[in-house]
Each structure stands twice: as C-alpha cells, then as structure tokens.
Design goal:
There is one protein chain. This protein is of the alpha+beta class and about 550 residues long. About 50% of the residues lie in helices and about 10% in strands. A hairpin with a 3-residue loop joins strand 2 and strand 3.
Length: about 550
Amino acid sequence: MRPKTLKKASATPTPSLASASVSGLPPDLLREAATRLGWAGLIYSVTFFFASFGAHLFGGTALMPEHSIWERGLQIWVSFASIAMGLAVFVFARYSRLRPQLLLDIGLVFEVVGAFGISMSSFWGIFPVWDPAILEGFFGIPWECVWIVFFPILAPNTPVKTLLASIAAASTGFLTVFLSTAAGATSPDVPVLVFVLYFGFSTYICAGIAFFVSRTIYKFGHRLKKAREVGSYQLVKPLGEGGMGEVWLAKHRMLARPAAVKLIRSEALGPDKAACMTVCRRFEREARATATLGSQHTITLYDFGITQEGAFYYVMELLKGLNLDALVRRFGPIAPERAVDLLRQACHSLVEAHDRGMIHRDIKPANIYACHLGPDYDFVKVLDFGLVKSIGKVEVGAAELTAEGIATGTPAFMAPEMALGKQDLDGRVDIYCLGCVGYWLLTGQPVFESDTPMAMVVAHVQEKPVPPSQRTELEIPESVERVILKCLEKDPADRPQTADELSALLADCAFDESWTQKRAAEWWRLHLPDSELPGVGVTDQDMAQGILTVDR
C-alpha cells in the first residue's frame, strides 16, 4: 500500500549487521574478485603445466633427470595434482552458487596449497649433496613470492586472513625442505641457517607486503562501500548515467528489497549555493509530489534524502520491463488495441494527479513504463514527476523553480502552450503529450520530425499533424485515429478536457480483437522472458533512461 506521506531520510545511514561485508568490499566488487579467483586457478594450472612439462613436450631435456625415479614420480604427481587443483578452482568459481565471500575464503586455502605445490617443484631434493661453495652464488627469488604478493590483488580478503594465509604460504618452502631432508632427497649437511636467511628475506617479506596490499584494498573497498550507501539502501550496480546524475540498482540493507535509486551528483547542481538549494527543492518537490499519489499506475517512491556528500537521491520501486520509447524502437509500432490499453492505464495515473491539482508536463514514451508486475503483463507505470506543477496555487519557492517564459519539457512531446512558455497551464497539457505518445506507439515516429529541437517546438505551435494512418502500414481504426488527433488540437478547449474523458473515449474505440492479459502474457513470454528483465541486464538501461529524464 502506498504511504500517504513521506518522511525525508537522514543523511547518515543506520548501521546494520546485514549491511556489513566481511571483506569490506561492495557486492559487485566481491563478485568480480570471485571471478578473478577462477581465472587465477586457470592461470596457475597453465603455468604449472608448461613449467613442469613444457621442455619435455617440445623435445628439451627430460623431466628432472638428476633425480631418482621415485623422486621424479613424486614431482610428476605433484604437478598433476597442482594442475588439477587449479582447474577445479576455475570451474568451482565459475559455476558454483556459493557466496562470493565464501569462495574467496576457499581461495585462501588454494593460495596455501598452491604455494606448497610451487615449493615442491622448486625445493624438493634441491641439494642432494651439499657443497659449501654453493654459498658463494645467488639462489634467486622463489616463485612463491610472486604468488604470495599477487594473490590478494586477484582475490582480496580481510587483512588478517590474508596475513595468516600468506605466512602459511611462505612457510611451505621450509616445509618442503624439511620433508625432503627427512626423505633423504636433501642432504642433512645443509646448514639450517641458509634456508632461514633465504626464506626470511624472500617469502616472509612478501607475506608482509601481501598484508599491506590487502589493507590498502580493504580500505579502498570499505570507503567505496560507504560511498555506495544512501539512506537505508546499498547501491549494487549502475543502471545508467546522465548529465546530472545516475540510476543504480539498489537493495534495502535490512529487507533485501530491490529498488532503483536516482542519484543527483552534488557537483552537477552547480557551484552557486543558492542555485544548488533551488535545484534540491525541485527534486524534493518531485519526491513529495510522487509520494502523495496513490494510483497503482504511478511509480512508488520509497525514500529520499541527501547524502553526506551533498548528493540528492530518491529511491523508487524497481520495474521489470521497458519504457514505451524502447518498446517501439526494439519491436516497431504496436497494435492499436494494445496502444489504447497502455494509454488508458496512463490516464489512470493522470486522473489522480490532475484531481490533486498537479500536472506532469513531461509525459513522453520514456516516462511511461510497461512492466511485468506480479501476474500482470503490460502493466503501466508513469515515471518522473520532475516537472510537476501545481494548478491554482503557488508553492513556496515555486517561482524560482519555474521561470516565466521558459519552455520546459521534451520538444517532440510538448504541448503548444508549453512551447510558448505560458504559465496558466492545466491538465490538458498532459492530454496533448499523451496524444503524442499514442502517435508514437501507432507509427514509430514523432508527430513532427525536424532537424532541430527549436524547429520541432515551432511545429507543435503552427503545423497540423499528419494523420497517423498515413505514416504507417499498420491498419489504424478510424475511431482510434480520431481520438489521437483530438488530443493533438492546438487549442486546449478542443481537446478532451480531462484524463477521465480521454480514457472514456479510448474505451469506446472498437476492435476486431481486444487486447487481453492472455495476449499480453503471450507477447511477453515470446519477446521479453524473465531472463531478459532488469536484474539480469538487457533492459536495465531502459529503466534508467526513463528515470533520468531530468538530464535535459
């Protein structure tokens, strides 16, 4: 049920256990890190394969000829096990349904076991006979160092977990030498101090470096996560971006309810403090106006407020579908009976708005959304009351928000009186705009096509529209065309006087076959199955385009 009033949200988010990520990373970065863990496993396997068998495969020296048969066998089994482990991590990271954080924790085990595989291939039987002259040379840096330093970059985790895993990985060199000595593959005469100094100044230093790398990533992730918190909502992923703001997929931190967040960046509001406050009042007015509307065909507003960084935001229901602009661009003009059904639902939203003394002033295809909502298909939601204007009363600050003589709206869908910058507007402005929307649905073209926005605005004032039946190959019933052209009359007195009257005229249009829920469901299942709806990706941008109409 839609709330009757909306309380302005606090800029300071309320802490919650549900919102805390163990790694400090936002959810999308966690998923990316889990994906990189899989690629790290694949790279590990490929590298291990060529390091162990590359020379042998390409006609080089036989594999470890200086070792005994059982030692070579052990090395081969270690190589096979390491390669298999890397491939298993790759498959597991790509296809399992475990939480990303749990995958990254499993990745720490992979880091330690992977380092042990590298150590076994490098240090098993390294000094079968000890010669003190060896101390005069340089041993080089063990490959574990590369593995230890780069692993937290590929698959980040908390600093403490990273430190423990890195120390364990750094200790695998010692463990390998100990096992090799116990098995007789390494001479017992090798001074222990040699390995203490060698690993102390290589793998253990790298473990310390890995800890500081992890701390840096953790701090960055924590700051980014805090920056993505608005009110009680956690931003998940961007849906679209415009000149003034962004639209994000978000979820409530306690309820896990998906939502769309419209975020207006503070720098986009301008350097002037007074102008910034004026714009903020405009967005606040939009939020409050939308929240007072109870029509099921008006988008539901959950929350609004200002972030600690000064960005204005409001949170809306997440819609599954696409706006009418995208609908026609993707699938072409639609059947007249379907167009009438969509227009009547939009009228439902406007009836309430007009009864409450508000006009939308920016009705256009991008602001009307066709949804799959619960069991309903082709369910219309009217978006973006950003240009809403009250009829018959002056709000505090309204004079600054809408200057006299300045046309606001979208040129292709603008009533003549709006194009002329008149201030005595009423609901018949929205009737004209809705007629333009109907024209678009039936023909796939705007009422007037011009090279410039100004020429298009002038056409709305001066030119007579061509009947839609002359601009499409689809058959349009005369009754439907008559209603659309009546909406497009230059004189508001010649149009339907209310959205209720327009809905009644549309209801009287006769069709050979009406548009039913059964037909709508069949169309959606064929053209827009649930796998292509927002949250998966295909129509996310359509959602954003409808919400970001403030960016004119």
